[in-house]
Amino acid sequence: MKCAIVGFLGCNMMKRSKSEPSTVRRFRLSHLLFGIAAVYLLFLGFKFQHFLELAALLSGDDSYVGLDGTTVGENEEVDLSKGFFGSAYKDTLHQEVEDEQNHNAPLMPKKEHQGEENGGARSIKPIQHKYGRITGEIMRQMNRTSDFSVLERMVDEAWTLGLKAWEEVEKFDVKDSEEDTMMEGKPESCPSWASASGNELAAGDRLMFIPCGLAAGSSITVVGTPHNAHQEYVPQLVKLRRGDGLVMVSQFMVELQGLRAVDGEDPPKILHLNPRLRGDWSQHPVIEHNTCYRMQWGTAQRCDGLPSKNDEDMLVDGYRRCEKWVRNDIVDPKESKTTSWFKRFIGREQKPEVTWPFPFVEGKLFILTLRAGVDGFHVHVGGRHLTSFPYRMGFTLQDATGLAIKGAVDVHSVYATALPTSHPSFSPQRVLEISDKWKAHPLPEVPIRLFIGVLSATNHFAERMAVRKTWMQSSVIKSSHVAVRFFVALNQRKEVNAVLKEEAAYFGDIVILPFLDRYELVVLKTIAICEFGVQNVTATYIMKCDDDTFVRVESVLKEIGGISHNKSLYMGNLNLLHRPLRNGKWAVTYEEWPEEVYPPYANGPGYIISSDIAKFVLELHVKRRLRLFKMEDVSMGMWVEQFNGTVPVQYSHNWKFCQYGCMVDYYTAHYQSPRQMICLWDKLGRGQAQCCNFR
Q1: Where in the chain is the domain with CATH 3.90.550?
Q2: Does domain 436-686 have CATH number 1.10.3730?
Q3: Galectin domain: which residues (predicted)?
Q4: How far is CA 569 from CA 19, 354, 407, 508, 621, in A?
Q5: pLDDT tens, residue by residue, 206-215
Q6: Contact 607, 546 (CB under 8 A)
Q7: What's the CA gap between 254 and 223, in Å, rounded?
Q8: How far apart are CA 272 and CA 448, in angstroms?
């Protein structure tokens, strides 16, 4: 009866299931249990201690029991009031990184004051120690007595050229050069127009120099021909199951660029204009506008053939941001002849509407004119207005000293007219306010609570001046409880180095490191900050930040005060289990970094360490046992982890040490332009810890 109900097939399966020997089931279960046990034993043998350390770190507990039965960090206080570790996996535009091992660092002369003392300006001498120098002893230890790595050669060359550059600065008389006009307030003279043929532009890597930048009324005309579309493979389309991933692409870029700060960092883009003739793989043309500051892009403005709003607050000098052009996927509604006749009969005025095709065509000549207006840039093609892009705070027309044209386009000629004949802000005398109130106080002889080292580039006169006029005026700094110094390497141009030397002599807040500045060698400045904070001042804590970082010093001190002073401290916006990028522009090879993850590290724009960690870094450096990695924040995380192996460290995480931009009630705000710095300081003076997000 059961077989009749269940069915013949189900009955046979039931019989087979009952007749199956139980030993088979037990055999399979035993294999499964055996496999689990084997994996567990391997886990105990190789990863258990590391797992306990990570578990203790994640739980906020400073203690864990090691395999030898000892308890590490027992009875230590734990700070769980802050949201502990948080991932920051947005670092797709992170610094270019390479590995470097075993550098030596002789000690800095103790208590050597930089800048002005007793009202008189001292002659400025750079720090004389070769951070990162590779010695023969280290090379023998590495069994590489004859060959240097790329980074080792880079470090050696940077120091050799840097010392030579400083010798030239010592001999260089700024009063006999054109740079004298910078310090004396005489504006440099620039041509009112510039032009370049296609061949001249190609010879200059498709970059035309505009000496004094642009001004309202300036215009740039580009005559060119877009290339025919070419085929590209886009793996993202394959993942989305949109065909075989092959698309036809035709696009080019016209960019107004500022000056590059240091080698390895892209120059700021005051305007990025990107016509995409085939669109974003959609076959519908798109024009994208954007800005980029310190390699961080703003919000893009995209024009796709649909007109933008005609509201007054959306217009730029009376122009629409996006004009209309013909799209083959949209059919314009046509009114009937009857409706048209009736409107004419009653006398209603009719405005004829003309729709133009997309102005860029593959293989056909175009004439593009970019004009700087009062409120923004205006793009005309073939004499017709196409798009407008409002200026963004933090970017000035005078900074647009370069025109770059890239991509699939043949450029025939470029003309720039109505250019300013003098630069109102590019010269240091327009940026550096020569006033006693901005001078740094001498380094205190008594112990201080915090020393802040600010990484800066040679030609960042405006950034340094903005820091001096804003958060360096904090009461705790003026009362000498906190000291601040800029750490700057040398430029390839001796004139710029000479002005830097004068700036350092006058303001007394710059530490000059005599190696040529390179983006890959920022870690050497970090070591210099550690050494200065230990040798030249007696600071309980040392903070590292960048010259585009705005610091709420009182809030940082308050946050530090919440940690027991008996604990070693590593504070900032921390990353846990951050993996190296193995592909792309910022790829890190396994030879450079063999581990799968980085140690816990704080993001570079602003972090704090206790002085005992800084002393540990210097001790390893003196003993030539300090391992360096080209990503300076990862290097610090690596050193702290090594120190944590012998002395428990309190890792303190807070998102308010902002990695990207700013947030309400911030401790540090990053990627802030000089104008934003002034705005933040003004708001802070009104008791508002709010952002100035102009870009």
Answers
A1: 436-686
A2: no
A3: 206-417
A4: 67, 67, 49, 29, 20
A5: 999 998 889 8
A6: no
A7: 12
A8: 46
